[in-house]
Amino acid sequence: MYHHPEALFQDRMIAMPARAGETLFIQGDPCDEFIEIRRGVARAVNHSRDGNRQVMALFFPGDMLGLPLARDHRYSAEAVNDLLYVRHSPSRWHTLLSRMCREENRLLDAVWGEEQSFLVRSLILGRTGMLSRMAAFILMTAGKLPQSDGVLQFALPQTDIASYLATSPETVCRSLRQLREYRIIAMPRRDRLKILAPDRLAIIAEGA
Amino acid sequence: MYHHPEALFQDRMIAMPARAGETLFIQGDPCDEFIEIRRGVARAVNHSRDGNRQVMALFFPGDMLGLPLARDHRYSAEAVNDLLYVRHSPSRWHTLLSRMCREENRLLDAVWGEEQSFLVRSLILGRTGMLSRMAAFILMTAGKLPQSDGVLQFALPQTDIASYLATSPETVCRSLRQLREYRIIAMPRRDRLKILAPDRLAIIAEGA
DNA sequence: CGACTATTTGAAGGGACTCAAGGCGTGTGG
DNA sequence: CCACACGCCTTGAGTCCCTTCAAATAGTCG
């Protein structure tokens, strides 16, 4: 099982704030630094040459993104909502590299964590039926978003969810409504979500 | 730009053969070894607990898969058609790790290459319209599959393409037929594909 | 040659997209 | 404090694309 790589960094760096929509780094820029999310949600946005824009992945507290696997960033990173993050310098990357010669799996955990964020979307998009995708999406976020009393802080704009699920905002809205009518989830507020029937949600995610 | 990491291995290991459909490693098994494709195509298959089966990625000559980023393999690897491959041992992985302390980007290239194979699917599935996805798929394979006189050796079962594109085999067949009728591609044989109008294919892939 | 699998084609049905309009929420400025 | 503007969410109607089921054909391997 994958563990969040927070333990990679013994020293506590000062977290920086970012407002919703703010850009953390831009696709095509050299990988000078990578980012660790402390609070809030960030999105990886891919811009094709033809102007196509896709939300490729979402990153939650504890996640790291922009790891210098290649020379340039393959996507832009933007804040989905207000967030706190740490900007790690390349010198820290080299520290990790040299440490990995002794404890090899630390860095690999971090790399794997980033890769996994992208794989999840591929798995979700592979499911047929938008309700199934939405259920899988909620189950994924449920393990990542902060919650109190079983109520998720679901502060994700539906436009972002739509781009992530490769659908339209209208369909996202209708899918959520359907899950509410089925009494599988409840949304006391726009940015609050409570899973009422996890078992039925899982069944729908599996395509039934 | 990403370079195929063949140069990672100075010594030439003896390539092993595998028949179409053969399993190279199984999801859940420990990452004892990883694989380099020399000839043919391999697929990464993810089996969900509910029996859902998805082709997550395709790997072509020069690609490596099953890198021990995590402890266990996250997908099964199977031969799409008859192929030649090299099974690398964990000791080779450790050699790469120690070498990376001096030349860091060699290993990262390999890791990035595997990750990119998965990202491509996510990008393709994010497009709307099956014709657009199919066009993007052909353009992707065109840079990976061997060709002679501009004719691709397109020896991919349509069932695999269907699973990769998250659609049905019938739709795959119909999409290919449509591209043939448009004179954008030609298929002199079932397993041969020639791109007649790359520009129009790119336009369709971009969603027009 | 025969069994089996993969591909092709047709028809019917439903789900998702698009376009359009209205409601809700937030933040800003008077 | 209120009014307004703006963006986001919600809902409806129509259309088209894709899926599903079914059947026929082509290809492959013994």
Order of helices and strands of chain A: EEEEEEEEHHHEEHHEEH
Oligomer: homodimer
How big a fraction of the residues of chain A is strand?
Answer: 15-25%
Structural class of chain A: alpha+beta
Distance N terminus to C terminus of chain A?
A: 27 Å
| Neighbour order of strands in the largest sheet of chain A | 1-8-3-6
Instruction: Please count the helical segments of chain A.
Output: 6
Q: Could you give the count of β-strands of chain A? A: 12
- Major sheet description of chain A: 4 strands, antiparallel
What is the radius of gyration of chain A computed over CA atoms, rounded to a whole number of angstroms? 18 Å
Basic shape of chain A: globular
Query: Which segments of chain A are poorly predicted (pLDDT under 50) over 5 or more consecutive residues?
Result: 1-11
The mean pLDDT of chain A is 85
Name the biggest interface. A-B, 35 and 36 residues
